[in-house]
């Protein structure tokens, strides 16, 4: 009986992986054209990934409250494809029967970065960067271009440099966007930057500055 249960569990686990769609696009325009006939509202979550959260439960509480306001039949949940940090929202979304998608730079595939098995579709965008603005411009890299322009509504919970740029561009083009402050994980931050005691994240700093400048 134990062997049967184990094999059955493995079969379910295997099917979860085998049903995942993997898509590759050579440009933002190609990806956006592909999805233009999508009839679902796209709700995007932006935040920390490998930097993770100091209070993960608080982040998930925010995400759950947002998801409870949406209809799973008519809403597609978009996140950055990786399982850490904001990627934990995939689990909530699947529990609530949402279709999920992960949009990520081709750099992730090049570096063999693990993606979440709970993302129904993983979309790789050909990109020389991980996202954010192109150097010395206010033009989004291809990956961030798709993330922002595919979205009908954007929820930002904390976030680093890429999330900051996507947030600022979203404000600029008047996207429906809500920002929630959240600390990145203190221990991980200290391991990378021992001198810093600021855990608020790049998105929070620019969020404050943006509204101060635009009041």
What can you see in these coordinates?
It is a single chain. This protein has one domain: 3-Layer(aba) Sandwich (Rossmann fold). The chain is built from nine helices and seven strands; from the N terminus they run H-E-H-E-H-E-H-E-H-E-H-E-H-E-H-H. It has helices at 2-18, 28-35, 56-67, 89-95, 106-110, 142-150, 161-172, 186-192, 202-214; strands at residues 21-25, 41-47, 75-79, 99-105, 121-125, 153-157, 176-180. Helix 6 packs across helix 7 (161-172) and helix 7 (161-172) packs parallel to helix 9. The N and C termini lie far apart (66 Å).
The end-to-end distance, rounded to whole angstroms, is 66 Å
Structural class, judged by helices and strands? Answer: alpha/beta
Q: What fold name stands as the CATH topology?
A: Rossmann fold
Instruction: Indicate the CATH architecture.
Output: 3-Layer(aba) Sandwich
Overall CATH class: Alpha Beta
Number of helices: 9
* Strand order in the largest sheet: 1-5-4-3-2-6-7
Low-confidence stretches: 1-18
Largest sheet: 7 strands, parallel
* Helix content percent band: 40-55%
* Net shape: globular
Overall mean pLDDT score? 90
User: What portion of residues belong to β-strands?
Assistant: 15-25%
Radius of gyration: 18 Å
Instruction: Give the SSE order as H and E letters.
Output: HEHEHEHEHEHEHEHH
- Counted up, domains total 1
By DSSP, the count of extended strands is: 7
């Amino acid at each position: 009986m134990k062997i049967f249960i184990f094999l059955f569990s493995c079969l379910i686990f295997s099917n979860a992986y085998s049903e995942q769609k993997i898509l590759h696009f050579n440009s933002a325009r190609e990806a956006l054209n592909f999805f233009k006939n999508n009839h679902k509202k796209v709700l995007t979550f932006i935040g920390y990934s490998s930097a993770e959260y100091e209070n993960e439960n608080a982040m998930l509480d925010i995400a759950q409250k947002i998801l409870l306001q949406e209809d799973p039949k008519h809403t597609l949940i978009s996140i950055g494809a990786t399982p850490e940090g904001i990627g934990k929202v995939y689990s909530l979304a699947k529990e609530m029967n949402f279709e999920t998608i992960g949009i990520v730079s081709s750099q992730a595939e090049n570096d063999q970065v693990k993606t979440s098995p709970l993302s129904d579709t993983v979309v790789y965008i050909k990109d020389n960067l991980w996202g954010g603005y192109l150097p010395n411009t206010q033009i989004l890299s291809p990956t961030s271009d798709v993330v922002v322009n595919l979205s009908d509504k954007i929820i930002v919970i904390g976030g680093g440099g890429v999330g900051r740029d996507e947030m600022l561009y979203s404000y600029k083009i008047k996207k429906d966007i809500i920002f929630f402050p959240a600390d990145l994980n203190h221990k991980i931050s200290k391991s990378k930057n021992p001198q810093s005691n600021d855990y608020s994240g790049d998105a929070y700093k620019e969020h404050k500055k943006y509204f101060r400048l635009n009041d």
